[in-house]
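Fig. S4 source data, part A: sequence.
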Amino acid sequence: MIEDGTRVMPEPEATGTQRNAAGPGRPGSPSPKSVAAWVLVGLVGAIGWGVLALSRGEEISAAWLLAAALGSYAIGYRFYSRFIAHRVLKVDKTRATPAERLDNGVDFHPTDRRVLFGHHFAAVAGAGPLVGPVLAAQMGYLPGTIWIVVGVIFAGAVQDMVTLFFSTRRDGRSLGQMARDEIGPVGGAAALIAVFAIMIILLAVLALVIVNALAHSPWGVFSIGMTIPIALFMGFYLRVLRPGRVTEVSLIGVALLLLAIVAGGWVAESSLADTFTLEKETLVIWMIVYGFLASVLPVWMLLAPRDYLSTFMKVGTIALLALGVFIAMPTLKMPAVTDFASRGDGPVFAGSMFPFVFITIACGALSGFHALVSSGTTPKMIQKETQVRMIGYGAMLTESFVAVMAVITACILEPGLYFAINSPGGVIGTTVESASQAVTNFGFAISPEALAQAAKDVEETSLLSRTGGAPTFALGMSEIFASVIGGGSMKAFWYHFAIMFEALFILTTVDAGTRVGRFMLQDTLGNVHRSFKDVSWKPGVWLASAVVVGGWGYFLWVGVKDPLGGINQLFPLFGIANQLLAAVALAVCTTLLVKSGRLKWAWVTAVPLAWDATVTLTASYQKIFSEDVRVGFFAQRDKYQAGIDADKVLPPAKNMDEMHTVVTNATVDGVLCALFAVLIIIVLADAGRTCFKAISNPESAKLAEVPWTESKIVAPAGLFPTAEEKAELAAAGLDSGGGQVKEPVAR
């Protein structure tokens, strides 16, 4: 028996969970057709991996990479995620979720699984899967691809689904609060501090990417701005005009979105262009205002429909990109593994393949930020526990596929062009001649004429040192689309379309992240003042939202005004901080598996936790103690301090004031990196203590899980209802979206 402090609850094997654990779709005897189909899927994936592994220097089609990824995703979702949902978590379709029990129409609101999938995917899929894999391509296409696919199946998607499940069982509590409730006050306090600080950094970094993408882009500003009134219309349509008509409103929303994108091109060529051509500072102000409103307005009104709408463009564009790869069959020109993987002296980012390729890819395989959404907005909106598989695991697989497409867009480019775009100006110079010579020295030849022509093709003055990954993704995307539609004359259109697409991709993460931050801060303040525990308490909502947007907004504003200040100062911490956050989430999930009587299944999260902790703490150690100035923060500080002492200005600093700023930034980054690492070690140590105590004395294990309450909502678990679910919906008089019934459904 496990005591939760207020009642004695039976172990999972005897709970309501077991009474109807799997619901529709519970594993049974597969049909011969099903067996044959899954054998075929497995063969496709295996052949794809075989071709990638056995290639020795020759160029191969990017379609093989897609085959390997898609086959692996299908097998992982069909078998591994099902195993976790039904055997490990024992999801219970008869148990009411917080969205049903606490529905207030503001934060808690039962949301159609299709809309919620769109919201969740849009919220978690930010800059990481677009730019991280592009930067990691410096090491070759194979290391990044392996980590993206294997990492998401066994780590990233597992973290998202398990975190969502446990948060749903706890009234949608935030990750930091779950750590405090379940691990203990010491580890919990460390987690609360680390999680909130890291979240502010992550949001500011994502916001900076958007500002840089939309500045002086009337097409992008108009099209993305129009998604807000479209989303408001969709929200009221589903809530007031035509409740439950998801397919209907989806068609209307997509039509309006496509019109907004086309109209953006018209606006950019019209007299209205100046109106929608905004400076970076103006964009920062608008983003802060939007972030605040998205955090305080009812979730059904703006946040959920806008994210759902954005998902159509995100998934649709990536699907078309994949189709373009199968049609055009571009070859992977980047080697499978480059020399930089072993030397660790790459121009894109310094450091060896282990651990930095895993840190750089981040969101495409495993992301701590996802755990914030899985314990933030999504658990307050999910209709049924059985939907955690589709929404948590499925959305993360979808994001991983975006990362695979990012690898392809980078690796189909000539390596010389890739390194000219992604190497800093201090390495390759500022002219096509100097860049050509520098890239040739890397071992990848490209002529000055080819560099100039590449920029001309997309109507850019130069592509040199367009670092950050986004321009490379856009260029690769334009290559694929232009080879299928329009040829070379359409390259510029597709390039600028991709830039706008990336901004839309990331903005949905910022608005959802702000709301998640508000939940997290309210949970934390609720430990001091109980009124904050009510996440819909208006003073708490406004105060917490203002603090969160004020936090990331400040760093963003200073970063826009000063190229060495604000979030630019903390940008080097982005990758490590995000992965350290994943360690917190996996530690909480492992602790909860142990405490809830699931010890034999704790390896499901403990194994990825061990890997993530090893990678991130190794990277943290190197960033703190490495004597290589390209890697170590304090080594960089010492170098520039020595330059100050010798009265020398070292690049990228342009004067002595900037030299002092670089010293300050390196010191701050080093101290924060050490602080985050120490906080995570405290969380891991306290989690280990709690697990040991629960194993040694199961009777002492206390859970903060809320009591079981019977659900009156009937809804499918997956995207498409099974035959059994269709019968259940029909008996309840509901359509495929499901909904609440007046009488409890017989179990």
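Fig. S4 source data, part B ends here. The chain has a mean pLDDT of 89.
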